[in-house]
């Protein structure tokens, strides 16, 4: 298995385990962890069809991976088009508020692809979850940062959301480049 496959599997597993506690209070989270470890039980969410299902985070990460394969690296304009049209065709489960608003902005033809993301004050973690692939793919940190900001900004233009995305992408980049040197 290559690094990209391992990343995608890790993303999907983390997403599937995290979906049941998304939006829950801090009081619920420790109980979920104890139940999961002791009984391997999951709570059900109305939003999803079955236990262990991934959310839009994994689905959008896979669309980014396909975009990077098709374009020999990320192409933000075609990525936004692909993601928004997948949303319009109901092919993405449980789309978060920031992504939904960005896709609707894009589909309205009122915004350029790179100006659809939700503004400052509407942070979220969706962008940070999918950009690890960028850190794995590009060789130099400046390009990793530039491409991460481009991809994250498609849906999340809040400075905290972008900063989180850059940290995740650079962390993935560091792990891969360190591993290559050893």
Write up this protein.
Residues 39-49 have low confidence and may be disordered. This protein has helices spanning 3-18, 28-39, 56-71, 76-88, 97-107, 126-130, 132-137, 141-153, 159-181. With 182 residues, the protein is an all-alpha fold. The protein is globular. Helix 1 packs antiparallel against helix 3. It is built from 9 helices and no strands.
Defining key terms:
about 180 residues; mainly alpha; about 65% helix; globular
Task: Work out the helix count.
Answer: 9
Tertiary shape: globular
Helix content: 55-70%
Largest sheet: none
Strand segment count = 0
Q: Span from first to last CA? A: 19 Å
Provide a quick synopsis of the model.
The chain is an all-alpha fold. The chain has helices at 3-18, 28-39, 56-71, 76-88, 97-107, 126-130, 132-137, 141-153, 159-181. The chain has nine helices and no strands.
Question: What topology emerges from the helices and strands here?
Answer:
Layout: H1 3-18, H2 28-39, H3 56-71, H4 76-88, H5 97-107, H6 126-130, H7 132-137, H8 141-153, H9 159-181
Helix pairs in contact: 1-3, 3-4, 4-5, 8-9
């Amino acid at each position: 298995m290559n690094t990209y496959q391992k990343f995608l599997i890790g993303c999907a597993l983390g997403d599937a385990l995290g979906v049941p506690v998304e939006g829950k209070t801090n009081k619920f989270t420790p109980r979920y962890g104890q139940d999961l470890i002791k009984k391997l039980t999951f709570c059900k969410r109305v939003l999803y069809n079955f236990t262990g299902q991934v959310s839009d985070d994994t689905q959008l990460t896979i669309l980014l991976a396909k975009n990077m394969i098709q374009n020999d690296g990320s192409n933000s304009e075609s990525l936004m088009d692909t993601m928004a049209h997948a949303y319009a065709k109901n092919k993405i489960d449980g789309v978060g508020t920031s992504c939904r608003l960005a896709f609707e902005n894009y589909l309205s033809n009122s915004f350029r692809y790179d100006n659809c993301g939700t503004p400052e004050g509407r942070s979220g973690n969706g962008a940070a979850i999918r950009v690890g692939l960028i850190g794995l793919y590009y060789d130099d940190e400046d390009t990793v940062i530039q491409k991460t900001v481009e991809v994250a900004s498609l849906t999340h233009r809040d400075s905290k959301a972008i900063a989180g995305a850059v940290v995740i992408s650079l962390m993935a980049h560091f792990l891969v480049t360190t591993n290559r040197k050893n």
